[in-house]
Amino acid sequence: MIAVGERINGMFSDVRKAIQASDPAPIIDLAQRQTECGAKFLDINVGTAAEDQKAAMRWLVETVQGACKTPLSIDSQKLSVVKAGLEVADGRSLLINSVSGDSDKLDKYIPLAIEHDAALVALTMNVDGVPQNVETRLEIALNIVSKAMEHGLDLPKVFIDPIVLPVTCDQKQIKFLCEVISQTKILSDPAPSTIVGLSNVSQGTSQRHLINRIALVMLQAYGLDAAIIDVLDTDIMDAAITADMLLDKMIYSDSYLKAARM
Amino acid sequence: MPLPALSESHSAATNIVTLGATADQGGTRTTTLQIGGAKTLPFMDGDGDCGHNVLVAMDVLDAPPDNWPADLVEPYAGVLDDPAAWAKKCVDEYGADLICLKLDGIDPDGANRSTEQTEETVKAVLGAVGCPLVIWGCGIDARDNEVLPMVSGAAKGERCLIGCAKQENYTRLAASCIADGHNLICLAPLDINIAKQVNTLVTEMELPADRIVMYQTTGALGYGIEYAYSIQERQRLAALGGDKMMMMPVICDAGYEAWRAKEARTPEAEAPEWGSETERGVTWEATTAITLIHSGCDIIRMRHPRAVTAVKKALEGLQG
Predict the structure, then answer these.
(1) Of A36, A251, A255, A261, which to mutate for an interface test with B (greatest number of B Cβ within 10 Å)?
(2) Before A190, cis peptide (omega within 30)?
(3) Which CATH code fits B46-155?
(4) Which of A40, A146, B154, B229 could form a disulfide with B119 if both were Cys (CB 3.0 to 4.6 A apart)?
């Protein structure tokens, strides 16, 4: 499973303070520690930490690029902020995170992904919001796949995100997300990739780590390819790696937990 | 209706390992060779880059073999007690890409050659040929641990390929290869899980992954070769899927395995229905080698010159 490290996000107080003080040390530390823990991408999200979000995104991207070689996930709901991050990227692999499943938005983001040779996270939501059933999410996923084919973006580089909501909002949703993920994997050949922003599932609960890692393993069993997670949480990384091994996505060895992080 | 082309592409590739070092690289080799770099299953050039060509390493023993059949001894008449001349003959006359100096002679129950004698032999072979060298211990851990680090030092800077590191015995040899700039063979007993484990253990010692070659103990044709084939095919698929601890190129041993099979050795007088042993032994070795090459092998160890010729001809057709 492709682990996307979630910690460089202005929603966390240490990152917010670092952005506001232009202090690179905490950002460098987070970039390097997440890399050591096995992150395959580092998510970069300014959040609400700065008034000039474009300048903050540029600073974060440049700071992280100076600290490690790990690919980046440029995370913002604003196209201009995403573009600011892409402009200063140094040629490493990139993930654009994210766009909704509306056709007019996809027509802007997919060519941008192609231009920067980046992968793209596309959410199964549209102007009407997040659908509350399997069928509508799949309908949006199919629209994303069609648009990617129309523009010529390789489908494995399209990461469809079926949107994880807190279990306290809707307890049935993980069960139907399993269904959405397995059906998304048969929408096309080659199949699109799938991703979730996992930590949302445990918002407001008393057992965040436990709920996160059980939900992740369940989704992996249905074909989840990537997740934005707290890679510094050893237990969730061990669970994800073990699930990959049990699903025959990697060869077992006595040191498989270590080998997967190399 | 035109048939759509069926092809599979993979994002990852096997590691590229460089063998041998020239004078400007700190060695004395006249040629260096590379293996690995494959982005496909073997010879599937329609799917992508097949990487570097398969190399044939011909065996040279440090002490005259006492149990080789006459047909295998005959091509080496006059050089079996002179490893340097033997190596030169393999390169000049029989087309070896590189030499595998097999140190059976250090076995205490065999010729029991000393460390000093072995160092001299390694130096003599390095002096006789310009190609890269594979140096392979006798397989007895205690003796290999005494001799191989000294041999590694004697060949310092030559970027040899030295074996074998095992799950329960890897630290001394890995440390020597790191110190002396050599590549290392990691052995697994027909076991993909142990192969990955040895690779991981050695990588943890900070030997770069692109200086490791994997070796699965191989069976000959008729002796469980299917297991080696399946394991090596699975190793290649894991590498192409992005498993970094499975991306190491592979060495196989066809010569030793084939020539200990009774089908290769039994004289026609004892088994008239099997026909001439002269053809049989060579065919057994060549068939073993070609089978292993198809499973995903970068260096094939061989013994009989006519089997080498047959394999090289097959490789010309497969990889040009």
Answers:
(1) A251
(2) yes
(3) 3.20.20.20
(4) B154
